[in-house]
Amino acid sequence: MAAAALLRRVPAAxxxxxxxxxARAISGSTAPLTIETSVPFTSxxxxxxSRDVTTTPAEIxxxxxxxxxxxRMEIAADSLYKAKLIRGFCxxxxxxxxxxxxxxxxxxxxxxxxxxxxxxxxYLARGGDLVSAFxxxxxxxxxxxxxxxxxxxxxxxxxxxxxxxGIVGAQVPLGCGLAFAQKYxxxxxxxFALYGDGAANQGQLFEAxxxxxxxxxxxxxxxxxxxxxxxxxxxxAAKSPAYYKRGDYVPGLxxxxxxxxxxxxxxxxxxxxxxxxGPIVLxxxxxxxxxxxxxxxxxTYRTRDEISGVRxxxxxxxxxxxxxxxxxxxxxxxxxxxxxxxxKEVDDAIAKAKxxxxxxxxxxxxxxxxxxxxxxxxxxxxxxxxxxxx
Amino acid sequence: xxxxxxxxxxxxxxxxxxxSSAGNRSASAARVxxxxxxxxxxxxxxGRLVARAAVAAKENSPARAAxxxxxxxxxxxxxxxxxxxxxxxxxxxxxxxxxDVGHYGGSYKVTKGLAEMFGDLRVLDTxxxxxxxxxxxxxxxxxxxxxxxxxxxxxxxxxxxxxxxNNCGMLxxxxxxxxxxxxxxxxxxxxxxxxGAEHSQRLESYFQSxxxxxxxxxxxxxxxxxxxxxxxxxxxxxxxxxxxxxxNLKEKIPDEEYVLCLEEAEMVRPGEHVTILTYSxxxxxxxxxxxxxxxKGYDPEVIDIRSLKPFDLHTIGNSIKKTHRVLxxxxxxxxxxxxxxxxxxxxxxxxxxxxxxIMCLSxxxxxxxxxxxxxxxxxxxxxxxxxxxxxxxx
Lengths: 390, 394
Description:
The structure holds two protein chains of two kinds.
Chain A: H1 3-9, H2 15-23, E1 33-36, E2 42-44, E3 52-55, H3 57-82, H4 97-106, E4 112-114, H5 120-125, H6 130-137, H7 171-184, E5 191-196, H8 203-215, E6 219-225, E7 228-229, E8 232-233, H9 234-237, E9 252-256, H10 260-277, E10 280-285, H11 304-314, H12 316-326, H13 332-355, E11 376-378, E12 386-388
Helix pairs in contact in A: 3-4, 3-12, 3-13, 4-10, 6-13, 7-8
Chain B: H1 20-27, H2 42-47, H3 52-57, E1 72-75, H4 76-90, E2 94-98, H5 114-118, E3 123-125, H6 130-142, E4 146-150, H7 161-169, H8 171-174, E5 184-189, H9 204-207, E6 214-217, H10 221-233, E7 238-243, E8 250-253, E9 266-269, E10 274-278, H11 282-295, E11 300-304, E12 307-309, H12 313-323, E13 326-333, H13 338-350, E14 359-363, H14 372-378, H15 382-392
Parallel strand pairs in B: 2-3, 2-4, 4-5, 5-7, 6-7, 10-11, 10-13, 13-14
Antiparallel strand pairs in B: 1-8, 6-12, 9-11
């Protein structure tokens, strides 16, 4: 991946890190590198892609950088939540970063992504910035949904990121609708509709899959299997936890979701397949360190040993760090510096987001309709809040 | 994508009995919505003077805006189909989702012939999966298409309630205005002829609380075509309520293109003594009762509210200021129905003008029974309307 691509994904705010990396001849390299995925792919009624993934040193460093930003953001969100600056529901993605980053590496911005409520990192991967993410979490005007959506409603239309949905499973038919629109307009692009192992048992998924298969829509259903649907382990919720097989007549692929290169390979394969042949199911075997949300400690239904075990054996960022050091793409000190930069960047973004004001009361009535009709809306007292729907 | 015209403005043009000047405007430029510029009330007052004599003579008259030509006779389902065809011809992003809408031609023939005209990619036969195909329609709308989603019977859309409420109604708001959902959700509802409880649903009361949704009910071929076109062109999600028993109504409609205002009520019969607010099939029961009432010496003003969300409080208010008495006749259930909301809205806004308590006649709060006499007793009959008017005007 060219330096230009690096710059595309690294906005101006991160310029110092870029400059740091550009200074080193080796790690900014775009010379191809072939790396084997941790485990081979398991497939259902389709030939799996090869275990050998072509990448470049620059791309691997981008993976490390992007995943570290996401990790830092989620940890910071944890603190903000405990400080009561973020309220309501807050579902954190730390541990699952490889899925968002690997997917983005395999596709373009004309492909669409839709996911559920664990969407902060997917938003970042699609080009969202930290300030608008934190501002939205804190309910400020500078938020990506103007403070009116919250944690579960991040969207970025210009990057074809369709959110951000609170009702489990409801985003999958929406995703198939996006795929339908892509086919209708003859775009050579695909839609990735993400859902969790809990949502995999929703009927509307199978309905949508049936329709997508019938109409040969370029829909890729991605099950981010972190093995727990809130507090219920997958074996207690699904008679068949082989989610990649549950498409039945639809092909499926099981992927190590903690291996960013495997994710990239699988998504690339899936996109080509979906555009040519119709829907395909991807199961990402991944893990979340936090509980389901900030209201869930995450330790009542799983042991701390399990959590720390995964962190030690399979952490996506550590895996990439080992890869970088093994191939001598950067020194440990340089990586540490990058992480420090990222930490500062995240802290700066939080500070900036805190400066953003709370939405004006008149915002209560904006965007209810695209264009209103002069209907008057008012609050209970009829005096304070009075607005003509614009 | 074809430019969507702005419909969300106050004064209508192509509604019945407007003066000939409006008719001239309606003959011009094809796609421009012939609706005057917004204004909360002034524009309406100016363009809406109606000669009472001309109207009082024909109570059930489907009189049109002065049309240049004779017009052509259609059945209501054909009017809906005409609207669909016209919009699909002009705007390639309009597509139809529904069960048996394509090859079968639609269970009420609204989409008959469309699949042959526009192909399988624009008129899509879905499996019986309301939840997901409604969701898919919303997703397609997020990406710029304009799906018309049909529920074979409105009642089946209850299966898609989550998609309609949370996604369709709310995505524009929760995304901070990034996405618009210009879908039309339509289908027949209402109490039919012994169709049984599950096929006699009236969902207007269920959907009315959903923020972000607009609801209209058509009742004549003329307003069916106009409202369908307006709904398709609207940037907001619109639920268009049709009625199972009204599909074969015959009426002459203009040959020229016309689009009605979604938020406007229709003056069916001006009067002086009492304002009767109704919609959909009950309009016909009201007009039947009006015949009897006129013979008894009453002069009811009948308004078909058409817009169930939001209410056209302007037209309704003007009427109340004149008559000071209100009777609401609706087909949905009493509890939490459209009448209940309308009553509240009238009390909030026009309390000082009322000389009598607002009466509301609704269907009984029971599942619709199969046996014919029982079914008839479930809905409001003309005799009850006559009795109610007599009571109000005492």
